[in-house]
Design goal:
2 copies of one chain form a homodimer. With about 400 residues, the first copy, chain A, is α/β, with parallel strands linked by helices. Chain A is built from 13 helices and 20 strands. Chains A, B: One of its GO terms (molecular function) is aspartate kinase activity.
């Protein structure tokens, strides 16, 4: 007998029929003798509907009251899911975040879980109940309803699995696992049976939006065994996210190719090369709440330097405005320019730690396809390059093949 | 400075625009220096939508889980109402039933309030907050979410007013007060400035559906000053519901004319007149959960009796079926028949206690209009008659005039 936490996202509980399908799956696991905790999101579209209602009243809704409203989305789903289980003759009981209780800090709309009181749930499990918990929500020390921010239901699932010392936390979504890259770009992309937490972190932050990055960090911290599966398929073991280092010689060096089309590049050229220049450029950008991803600084003409960074595309014109108005004259730069026709491609794999030549193979592959590299940034287990957007699919396919992922 | 509880029903908070209107009204009261607690229902239609979702999953939803779902309706409205107040620059804070906490028994979908912990609310009021509370819901001793049943938001308002020792509980609805009768039937109907609790109880149970009967009983028990007003009009003092007996000679004997088209008449004729016959007839009806309103028993032919009662129209065929199958043969009755083309008209007024001749004036008025009376039942402050449905409007108009309510 295992204790399994199963988390179902918005599309998995998007209609009454889908909710009944979830109940049937839970029933199957239950019939195998497992104890099951189900964590559900709001029905797809419901959170946006509630935010829309709030914004009809107040353009920038008070966060405490927004949480009161938005948290009802999951509350409706726990009721429906529990009804579907009871309708199958299964003992089941729902819990809101505050009923559990999932104690968070008071940072409304982006609260962090501090502690989970799992005793009532454990008691219900021991009495044979399936317990259905509202994802994405908690309660602060004063009893105010909080939400964990978008995608927070994954975090709820992992945190409950950690508190209950569950054998596995299964994240059900609309894909059947983690792939070597996006199958829509590379039809030869393969589902991975397993991936390490570190790789998953790099894949997630690079745009493979299967799991929320915070929930992966959380799982790593508490050593929760995480599995990604499809709620739309009856069979399949999904992808297991592991803590073990791969040390099998046969394992591939690279686990996957991630990419991202949401960034834009900003350059400020001919800046006098003085200490503190990076701060003078990025300080005003940060003050405007613009997130910066890649940053590089190159030596330019004598005594000057060229500074380039990437931002989210929707922030490009704002960033250019700030640089032109507040920075360019101040630091004595020659030119400011931006480009949103770029894409980022990354190869990810713990194997590259112990393999020299991974970077050079990546660069050679791109060069053989005639693809120019704009920027490079590296970490221990990934290498990212910025290229012209129009070559994105070509680059991903070529790298997928070159690193043996097609096999 | 007064402490006022204002309760707004579903149509009063039916749209974001209506909610903003509620906030403006609250702001006006607040600017006069009053402390305000606002109790809101779900937006009109929302409760039915949620019940519909539950029934899509399970034909007869588990009551605990139904309450989890349905209670979200009011939770959304407290968020929106509080946002609207904050948007007007007013300090405001929302409370769900369990945050208050409004402790109830565990009779899901029809729970009764046991105790209200008003200390947090009082503290917020003293700090200048407008407090917005979800109507219709509470929490039981075990922390399960409960609902008070349809119309329970009125009860929440009155119970909060009692707990906080409020100066007045204002019930906002889509009518501007209690009328002598339905103005759609009698254009001369007048709004009453005040009405006694006992009269209100008779009016409410007789089909003037402005206030929920339970909330009126509750107000009477705790001596809460209740006022019915329209949320759709800027001005007006509505109708105050008082505890004082009217003892002014000038006060009218009759306060209003109530009527009801929802009943049907059931007769079982030629029953041998023996002890226990009423129970043998009504027992099986009660067992089938059919509510009975008026009951009369008349002596018929020698040694037999005729028994007649009224039920809700939707229960007529069920009641006839039970009488024909389980009762008629058993008690040896001659005939069973039903009639749903009937209506009940009642005159209500505490004044009739001390005035003889009220009944005879009622019967004479109806007789002068050629209206036959089918059944009569009386209480201390009301007289009800059952007549042919087609004469309903005529009867109401004639009685309204005869008792001087047109004046």
């Amino acid at each position: 007998m295992s204790l399994i936490v199963q988390k179902y996202g918005g599309t998995s509980v998007g209609t009454p029929e889908r909710i009944r399908a979830v109940a049937r799956r839970v029933a199957r696991y239950k019939s195998l003798g497992h104890q099951i905790v189900v964590v559900v999101s709001a029905m797809s579209g419901e959170t946006n509907r509630l935010i829309g209602l709030a914004k009809e009243i107040m353009a920038e809704p008070d966060p405490r009251e927004l949480d009161v409203m938005v948290s009802t989305g999951e509350q409706v789903t726990i009721g429906m899911t529990t009804l579907a289980l009871i309708d199958l003759g299964i003992k089941a009981k729902s819990y809101t975040g505050s009923q559990v209780k999932i104690l968070t800090d008071d940072a409304h709309t982006k609260a962090r879980i501090l502690k989970i009181d799992h005793h009532n749930i454990q008691e219900d499990l021991d009495q044979g109940y399936v317990v259905v918990v509202a994802g994405f929500q908690g309660v602060d020390e004063q009893g105010n309803i909080t939400t964990l921010g978008r995608g927070g239901s994954d975090t709820t699932g992992v945190a409950l699995a950690a508190a209950l010392k569950a054998d596995e936390c299964q994240i059900y979504t609309d894909v059947d696992g983690i792939y070597t890259t996006d199958p829509r770009v590379v039809p030869e992309a393969k589902k991975l049976d397993s991936i390490t937490f570190e790789e998953m972190l790099e894949m997630a932050s690079l745009g493979s939006k299967v799991l929320q990055i915070r929930s992966v960090e959380f799982a790593g911290k508490y050593k929760v065994k995480l599995r990604v599966l499809s709620s739309f398929e009856e069979e399949g073991d999904g992808t297991l996210i592991t803590f073990e280092e791969k040390n099998n010689m046969e394992d591939p060096i690279i686990s996957g190719i991630a990419f991202n089309r949401d960034e834009a590049k900003v350059s400020i050229l001919g800046v006098p090369d003085k200490p503190g220049i990076a701060y003078q450029i990025l300080g005003p950008i940060a003050d405007a709440n613009i997130d910066v991803d890649m940053i590089i600084q190159n030596v330019g003409a004598v005594g000057t330097t060229d500074f380039t960074f990437t931002v989210n595309r929707i922030d490009l014109s704002k960033a250019l405005g700030i640089l032109n108005e507040k920075v360019k004259g101040h630091v004595g730069a020659r030119e400011v320019n931006g480009n949103d026709k770029i894409a980022k491609v990354s190869i990810v794999g713990v194997g590259m730690r112990s393999h020299v030549g991974v970077a050079s193979q990546m660069f050679r592959t791109l060069s053989e396809e005639g693809i120019n590299i704009d920027m490079i940034s590296t970490s221990e287990i990934k290498i990212s390059v910025l290229i012209d957007e129009k070559y994105l699919e070509l680059a991903v396919r070529a790298l997928h093949k070159a690193f043996g992922l097609d096999a």
